Amino acid sequence: MNLEKMFQMQAELDRRIIKEKGLEGQDLLPNTYVALITELGEFANEGRWFKHWSNKQEPNRTGYIDCDVCVDQPGRYEVIHEGEILSLPCPKCEDREEVYVGDRLLEEYVDCLHFFLSIAIKKGWKEELNIPEEAIEDFKEAGFDGGLSGAFLEMQWHLLNSRMFKKEDIKKMNFQSAWGLFLAIGIVGFGFTLDQIEEAYMNKNAVNHKRQQEGY
Prior knowledge:
With 216 residues, the protein is mostly helical. The protein has one domain (3-62, 103-213): Orthogonal Bundle (all-alpha NTP pyrophosphatase fold), CATH 1.10.4010.10. 59% of the residues lie in helices and 8% in strands. It contains 7 helices and 4 strands. Strands 1-4 form a two-stranded antiparallel ribbon. The protein has a two-stranded antiparallel sheet with strand order 2-3. Helix 4 (133-142) packs across helix 6 (168-190). The longest helix has 23 residues, at 168-190. The protein is globular and about 65 Å long.
């Protein structure tokens, strides 16, 4: 995974958003933390591992489409006509030459990745993104203390500490721990490869640029 390239791409996207939305000079770091925490919740919702009350605890890995009409059926949507359910071509997507379809869980994961990178950019914590491969291998061998939920909660705890502590060195340490756990959850918990994560990031980064262009 080419973190250097991704770091540069995220910086470019962030600069574009700040310029086009007229946000120069504003402290956007609190918003970025809230955005990351929100996206982590959306990732967990698609991961479903914590839903002990549900018969379906397998993650949503089915197709995802970037459309608010046919989210659950890429390119199609359902209507009820005279008591009968009809599956029709999506009126919003049918004329598009290309429709983005991918892994719903991975999509949410890289949404989180965007905001991790943004925080690192704003804080100058680029070096904290370098996690030794041995750390990930340790998780593969030992597993997560408290399972995926334990790892997720610990990640959130470190993430909040990277914002709330007063000492900068403690903030950085907590951010690196949160980032390391985030990578481990994706790689060990759900089997994402570094190449898959990078490719999904590149795809979503392009989508985000397109959204800015279209006045998102």
